Amino acid sequence: MKRLIPILKQDKVDTDLILLIRTILAASKEIAFRVSQGELAGILGSTLDENIQGEIQKKLDVVANQLLKDMLLDDDNVAAIASEEEPDVVPGHQHGKYIVAFDPLDGSSNIDVNGQIGTIFTIYPVRPDVPFNCERQFAQPGHQQVCAGYVLYGPSSLLVMSTGGPTRCYTLDLTHGGYLLTRSEMQIPTDSKEFAVNMANYRYWADPVRGYFNQLLSHPNFANSTLRWNAAMVGDIHRVLSRGGMFVYPEDSRVGNENGKIRLLYEANPLAMLVEGAGGIATASGQRILSIHPDSLHQRVPVAMGSASQVAVLNQYLHDRAFDESTTHSTN
Ligand SMILES: O=P(O)(O)OC[C@H]1O[C@](O)(COP(=O)(O)O)[C@@H](O)[C@@H]1O
Ligand SMILES: [Mg+2]
Ligand SMILES: [Mg+2]
Fold this sequence. Notes:
Elements: H1 4-10, H2 15-37, E1 46-50, E2 56-58, H3 59-73, E3 78-83, E4 90-91, E5 98-106, E6 117-125, E7 147-153, E8 157-162, E9 168-173, E10 178-183, E11 194-196, H4 207-218, E12 226-227, H5 233-243, E13 246-249, H6 264-277, E14 281-284, E15 287-288, E16 303-306, H7 308-331
Bound molecules: 1,6-di-O-phosphono-beta-D-fructofuranose (FBP) and magnesium ion (2 copies).
């Protein structure tokens, strides 16, 4: 089985970037160990603190965030970091070549029930035109990412990562502690019957979104459709990368959810790079996610990503409904 570092060298990845990836993965192994220890490691349950998202932080959110922060700030290649659990940019080294953003623990609501959880990360080159430690460093569209990945802490710990080429999957080998290549090129089937959405939010959706899911649940064209929802985007996207399907988190009428729940910088962008690298598509209201120019660290985007034709059908439906509504209004 091939090991990670020789593969990155073969892919001609910059040496400093390889060292930085190694730093992130060292933190992920420590998190994987704590996760496997569960209550024995005292990582279950909540803190009394609220993060910038207005969510009560889980103990493991805080532990994972601190582990990644400590290790990254020790790395000279890092100019600045951003995290779901940090309100602002955390400055690193003035001459660092890269900036890193991460969701230290994705699927927080699954922690106390031993469900699937993960860590999502993304790396960009530092912008030479703005100060190394300011928020504008992170105002780069997703297609500027030089590396994106997640570690899924499940029955086995898996790393899925791209440095711009294929989306590859590695398994953490507990016998020698390294990630070994287990899937050299993940390819998403173009079509699928599986979809992932939190249907309980139906009441908050706009009519066109409701209309699409009404069709999905009743129209003969969509017979045999199957719903899967892991409550951890990293787990749902891993299933999509492994056997196809579509992940959707629409905008809705709840306060704060005007753009849905998924954060652009450290959730949507890295997962979009992996999905596109595996032949799928990743959109926000029909627009390519990787072309969006971020305007704030924790901004959210409505998401539809996965099997290309499945996502295209959804976007076409929403586009047609929006068009119908606009023509109806203009003729009234
Ligand atoms: O509670 P809901 O509506 O099912 O939302 C689940 C979604 O929220 C998330 O858990 C948000 O991520 P965090 O756990 O990192 O906050 C996603 O992973 C998941 O897809
Ligand atoms: Mg998350
Ligand atoms: Mg999180």
